[in-house]
Amino acid sequence: MRRYVGRVGISCLQDSGTGSTGSGNGADKAGARFGSWGVETQYISPAIAPGDDFYRYVNQGWLDTAKIPAGFPLDGAFIELLLRTEKQVQHLVDEVVSHTAEPGSPAQQIADMHASYLDMERRNALGCSMLLPEVEAVLELKDHRQIARRMAMNGHMSLVSCHVDQDPGHPERYILTFAQSGLGLPGRDYYLKREKHYIGLRAAYEKYIEGVLQRAGIKGAGKKAAEILAFEKEVARRQWTPEQARDALKNYHPMPLTKLEAYAPGFDWKEFLVEAGYDEVDLVDVNTDKAIRKLAKLFSETPVDTLRAYLVFHYLNNHAELLSDEWVDAHFDMFKRRISGVREQRPLEVRVVEFLNATVGEQLGKLYVARYFPTEAKAEIDRLVKFVIEAFRERLAQVEWMDEDTRKAALVKLEAITTKIGYPDQWHDYSSIQVSRDDLVGNVRRQREWHRQDDRDKLGKPFRKWEWYMYPQKVNAYYSPTGAEIVFPAAILQAPFFDPKADPAVNFGSIGMVIGHELGHGFDDQGRRYDATGALRDWWGEESSRNFEIRTRRLVEQYNRYEPIPGLRMNGKLTLGENIGDLGGMTVAWVAYRKFVESEYHGKAPVIDGFTGDQRFFIGYAQLWRTLAADDYLRKITLTDPHSPGEFRVNGVVRNFAPWYEAFGVMPDHKLYLAQDERVAIW
């Protein structure tokens, strides 16, 4: 299990006595990107009491004027940074394509992948013709055995995903891992919910399936579309819920490969694994195990004709964004506009940057860090991380509900967490991948196959500690429980999440909180199950586990009451890990900030524009999560995403945190007020 979190930023820790996390005098009036000291104070609404709605107190002016950019279902600080990063990447691409490069070099691969994607004249002329030989081959499959083998092929959909991952029980090695799969819509609830909205989406999806089959010349497209949708409904009924699927203990089910056939009968595992290239492995990990048993049985009970149609549709759909305008537009209408609420397609010259990041992202990443991430930045952000780790260490030493043996083990785990910053120390060698200017679909296939072969090569070898799961220009960050590491790609280490010219309070409330959030994932409801080596095992004392679960149940109950849109309640169990990360991240960032104030300001930060340092800390945090989102997007993430919407990442956190009450004079008559015995404090 890996956990990822978005919305993070660049940190620069400059020497100033004990160190600086921004302008030593509170703010550099000339240079902060957001406002004069890191916050756009023009958007603060004095008409809203901070204690009634802190999120809107800080962000209402922005919410009133913001517009969702083309091609996105939302806007916010994260999107602003993403757009700026894309422009940086676009400049690099423009330089690369203007020169001739050596075959097999990163520059040649970038340039030719770029050219193949932009060649709409060729793409429109070809349509889906390059896919038809495989479509015809699928339509000739005779039995379930042949279907199972096809499901393992590059570009095809399967009821079971198959990939190589770190072994949670033995993190020093890799293991072949299976998990439930097989759906075209974002999650099982899209098939099972009976509300009018989801009934309409299913009808639209059926029409989309029919259109895909018709464009490929498949006869009886309408009947086949109905059969495919009905089949996917049955798949959805057998899948685990998102909250079940994030349970680390329930998901770890290692077994000898020889027992897989008997454990999940009905699916031809031998044919599937031969085609995938994994038929000689000894051990496998069956995630979502009970779902896979049910899916294997469903597979055996489903007519071959239905499975053929299912394979054909998904093979075409998996390539739709690489085909002609007709295919691209239909795919956008279904999956971006109808499901996520995106109003208009991004221009081709912008979409190509997204595509290059997805296909040659690491090759671009080497260029990106050379241009936009100076080597000294690594050391600077590393010092800030250590500052926050010290605060976390202090909190672990103080929590009253944890027994001493568990506390000692937790402190050992904290010390063992590795921090990776900016870019990997070692890069993959992609020079063997053939990239052609006139073969877009082939380029993507060969890129995917390289990664499949690379996965095969990992089995039987030690875990690659150098390998990253994100490229440097990715605006994101993650914590890996099995890797015992927190990772901050270069692109996320920029304003608005950290600005070296901004007020230190704002930096602690944003990047400091995010660092604390990532560390906190090591001690959330799932991350706590992994020890200092990254091994999945029970290392907590019974009393500490019981005390932890009492607190987390209360947090679940709080978030279950929140409604992103009227009538749609959040799933507190699904978002629990991220909510623990937010609350814990806020806490340790606050402790780190107060230690900074003691050392830099002798205990009293300057007042800026009428705001105390403590107030600026929380205002910076609230600005970080400002979000304007389409309702359809909010529906989607509420059903499928472990992160809470921005409003609740602010209000849901601060109302549990005593220093916020003190900073803004929040009283019992305020709407966000919680009595002390109702507040949740974990870390």
For this structure, what is the CATH homologous superfamily of the largest domain? Collagenase (Catalytic Domain)
How many distinct beta strands? 10
Distance between the termini: 22 Å
Shape: globular
Q: Indicate the CATH topology of the largest domain.
A: Collagenase (Catalytic Domain)
Radius of gyration: 26 Å
**Sheet of most strands:** 4 strands, mixed
Number of domains: 2
Structural class by SSE content? alpha+beta
Secondary-structure arrangement, i.e. CATH architecture of the largest domain: 3-Layer(aba) Sandwich
Oligomer: single chain
What value does the average pLDDT take? 94
Model description:
- This protein has 27 helices and ten strands.
- The radius of gyration is 26 Å and the shape is globular.
- The chain starts with a strand and ends in a 19-residue tail after the last helix.
- The protein is of the alpha+beta class.
- The strands form three sheets. Strands 1-8-9-7 form a four-stranded mixed β-sheet, covered by helices on one side. Strands 3-4-6-5 form a four-stranded mixed β-sheet. A two-stranded antiparallel sheet has the order 2-10.
- It has two domains: 3-88 and 371-424 and 468-678, 3-Layer(aba) Sandwich (Collagenase (Catalytic Domain)); 129-345, Neutral endopeptidase, domain 2.
